[in-house]
Amino acid sequence: MTIITLLTDFGVVDTYVGVMKGVIAGIAPEARVVDLTHDVPPQDIQAGAFHLLVAYRYFPVGTVHAAIVDPGVGTERAIVAVRAGGHTFIGPDNGLLRWAVDSAGGPEQAVRVENRDYSLPEVSATFHGRDVIAPAAAHLARGLLLESLGPATGTLAGSPFPEPHAGHGVVVHVDRFGNCITNLRPPAGETVEVLGRRLPIVRTYPEVEGRQPIALVGSAGFVEIAVNGGSATKQLGIGRGTPVRAGAS
Asked: What are phi and psi of 68, to 5 degrees?
């Protein structure tokens, strides 16, 4: 049974996600569809890229990952399908797939999704998730060869994941709890400095009393800045793009 994951900025108020699942069910009823998230902030490509980066590796080889955060829908931007590390990623070529594909070892094969035989008969200008990406993902889940979707393509659009340099990093994501996830990985020293404030790196959130800001290695393997029972982004006034620095105590 092939798994198809869905990641979008569609939310769950409208029927967009449900309709995509209906399209998949009509083509590959045996496929198992897993929702990664549909709460990516609207048009926030970097947030979507981060979610896909930290999630894809927990799925078995052979999974098809369909991702749609697509402010350029209907324009000349390409839709691509990419095989990397035994996974297949499909979505708009706007940087959304780049971090996950690079993490999986880079593209082994990549194509532009242009063969109308594997899309819905009518393709709207505003809902390529339903009309192009969902049906293509379903056909891939049924065993369609990647090259059947369209011509080969080269390097994916978007910037690579911002790696830290000489202990200097940056906040790359803020989760719903207000934890500020950086691009620093362990070992990162004993403290993290942000906006001139030095925070201890601890093992768990409750290791300090009260709502004291701390740093710790989160579940995704990155150092994050947090406030036990509170929001680091609100309490410290930091967010995506804020510089951080690893250091000794």
From this structure: -135, 100
The model's confidence at residue 208, banded by pLDDT at 50, 70 and 90, is: confident
75 touches 14 (CB < 8 A): no
Q: How far is CA 218 from the centre of its chain?
A: 16
Q: 40 — phi, psi (to 5°)?
A: -60, 130
Q: What's the structural domain count of the chain?
A: 2
30 and 113 within one domain: yes
pLDDT for the residue 207: 81
Whether residue 72 is found in the same domain as residue 38: yes
The one-letter amino acid code at 46 reads: Q
Residue 231's domain spans which residues? 168-247
For residue 6, what are the contacts with CB-CB under 8 A and spacing of at least 6? 17, 20, 21, 33, 34, 35, 36, 38, 66, 67, 68
> Taking the model in full, what pTM does it have?
0.94
Is residue 243 a contact partner of residue 166, using CB atoms and an 8 Å limit? Answer: no
Distance of alpha carbon 144 from alpha carbon 93, whole angstroms: 21
